[in-house]
Each structure stands twice: as structure tokens, then as C-alpha cells.
């Protein structure tokens, strides 16, 4: 379980680093959403184990929570930047990120790797819908 968390959190750190290479907050957030969906569908295959931290030791729980908080803050910075630049309407970035993460993380409840929709299509649809709510 800990190794699964480490792998997925490493992917999230990577996607934040990669997103910073893009010019606009919209492009950064869109790419981050698409990549996060890919992590949920391809790397974790939609596994609900992504949420299971209470089974970890207190030290490992704290480590995982700290990494998740760092990821959340990075997404909030993208939204704040988009608001500052006029790409997004004025929103509470914390609530916006909770909505984005809630939508993406819910994939673990319904995603079927054998189903008709896969990461690229799901990621694009999520990015369009979620960013559309910010503009």
C-alpha cells in the first residue's frame, strides 16, 4: 500500500514539475488534470486504494498526507495565477481544487479498465468540464 502511494505521489510531483513548463495557468491546470486522470486510470487502474491511508503507520500516513497537501497547494497556485492573469474568474482556489480533486478521485469508484473510455478521452473531458467552471 505504501509503495502504491509512493508511486502515485511521485507521478503527481512529476506532473506538477512538467506543468510549470507551460505558458498559461489554463494550459498548466488542463495538463495537470489530464495527467492526474492518467495516473488514476493507467497507473492505479482506478484503484480505490489511493484513498486508503489509515492502514499505514502514523509516520507513513503523515508522509503521504504531506505530499498530498503539497500537490493541492500546487494546484491552488495554478488557479490563483489564472485568476491574477484574468484567465479564470475570481474563485476560492481551495474550494475549486477540492472540486477538481473530488471529481478526479471519484474515478476510483466507477472506472473500469475494460470499459470504452480510457485515460486520454476521460482526461480531456474532465479538463474541459473542470476548467470550464473556472472561466
Describe this structure in words.
The structure is a single chain. By secondary structure, this protein is mainly alpha-helical. It is globular. Helix 2 runs antiparallel to helix 3. It is built from 6 helices and no strands.
How would you sum up this structure in a few lines?
This protein is mainly α and 135 residues long.
Secondary-structure blueprint:
Layout: H1 2-19, H2 25-43, H3 58-84, H4 93-105, H5 107-110, H6 119-132
Helix pairs in contact: 1-2, 1-3, 2-3, 2-6, 3-4
Key attributes of the depicted protein:
135 residues; mainly alpha; 0% strand; globular
Question: What's the SSE pattern?
Answer: HHHHHH
- Provide the low-confidence segments as ranges: none
* Total beta strand runs: 0
Based on CA atoms alone, the radius of gyration comes out at 15 Å
Number of helices: 6
Structural class: mainly alpha
Shape: globular
Report the major sheet. Answer: none
Beta-strand percentage range: under 5%
Helical residue percent band: over 70%
Distance, first to last CA: 38 Å
User: What's the average pLDDT?
Assistant: 89
Amino acid at each position: 500500500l505504501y509503495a502504491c502511494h509512493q508511486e502515485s505521489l511521485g507521478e503527481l510531483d512529476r506532473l506538477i514539475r512538467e506543468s510549470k513548463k507551460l505558458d498559461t495557468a489554463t494550459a498548466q491546470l488542463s495538463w495537470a488534470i489530464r495527467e492526474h486522470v492518467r495516473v488514476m486510470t493507467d497507473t492505479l487502474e482506478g484503484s480505490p486504494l489511493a484513498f486508503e491511508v489509515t492502514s499505514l503507520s502514523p509516520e507513513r500516513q503523515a508522509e503521504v498526507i504531506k505530499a498530498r497537501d503539497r500537490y493541492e497547494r500546487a494546484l491552488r497556485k495554478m488557479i490563483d495565477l489564472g485568476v491574477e492573469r484574468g484567465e479564470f474568474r475570481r474563485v476560492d482556489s481551495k474550494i475549486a481544487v477540492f472540486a477538481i480533486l473530488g471529481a478526479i478521485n471519484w474515478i476510483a469508484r466507477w472506472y473500469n479498465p475494460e470499459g470504452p473510455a480510457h485515460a486520454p478521452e476521460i482526461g480531456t473531458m474532465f479538463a474541459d468540464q473542470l476548467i470550464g467552471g473556472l472561466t
